[in-house]
């Protein structure tokens, strides 16, 4: 079972919007509306940003939004801020009731 | 307030068995609907999901590591325990426990770093 595919890095300037893709297969991302996204700053535990593909936990900024089309999920961050500079991971429910993460994307806010 | 805290040895030797403990506060591993997962992250690398245990003791393991992992819970101590056998330097990582809901981890522990070296 291979990791979900994410771009290694993306960048944007403050105020801009960026989108991070997460590509899986018909056995994981394509089969379940159970994609989640996490933000991780250096030496910190991951933080949940999006669950069930499109939902935001209480307290997470509405600048973060999720979507899915076929086997690809996406995280969009609008109005980029300096504190968004971090690593981002997607995760999906997969076969056998397991979970699978993406390889991670380093977001650089220029 | 729900918190989780991992503990275990910082250093283990190759071939040894690793035992990690996740102590829950504000909830019990036997509460109906409770689900806890273990995730690890090698230095500079991606997250990897390892195993899950439900309130009713249902257990699921990573396909690639299933033969080496055992997850259990100790309700009397409010703990979830993960053991991993035959440790290898490639298992050097920060190990996290987390509460899982709807396929997502909404509460994470701070993580515990394990180095495998002779």
Question: Describe it for me?
Answer:
The complex is a heterodimer of chains A (about 110) and B (about 120). Helices cover about 0% and strands about 45% of the residues of chain A. Chain A has about 110 residues and is mainly beta. In chain A, the strands form two sheets. In chain A, strands 1, 3, 4, 7, 8 and 9 form a six-stranded mixed beta sheet that branches. In chain A, a hairpin with a 2-residue loop joins strand 5 and strand 6 (about 70-75). With about 120 residues, chain B is an all-beta fold. In chain B, about 35% of the residues are buried. The mean pLDDT of chain B is about 95. The interface of A and B includes residues 51, 57 and 101 of A.
How are the SSEs placed, and which strands pair?
The complex is a heterodimer of chains A (110) and B (118).
Chain A: E1 9-12, E2 18-23, E3 35-40, E4 47-50, E5 64-69, E6 72-77, E7 86-93, E8 99-101, E9 105-109
Parallel strand pairs in A: 1-9
Antiparallel strand pairs in A: 2-6, 3-4, 3-7, 5-6, 7-8, 7-9
Chain B: E1 3-7, E2 11-12, E3 18-25, E4 35-41, E5 48-54, E6 59-61, E7 69-74, E8 79-84, E9 93-101, E10 104-108, E11 112-116
Parallel strand pairs in B: 2-11
Antiparallel strand pairs in B: 1-3, 3-8, 4-5, 4-9, 5-6, 7-8, 9-10, 9-11
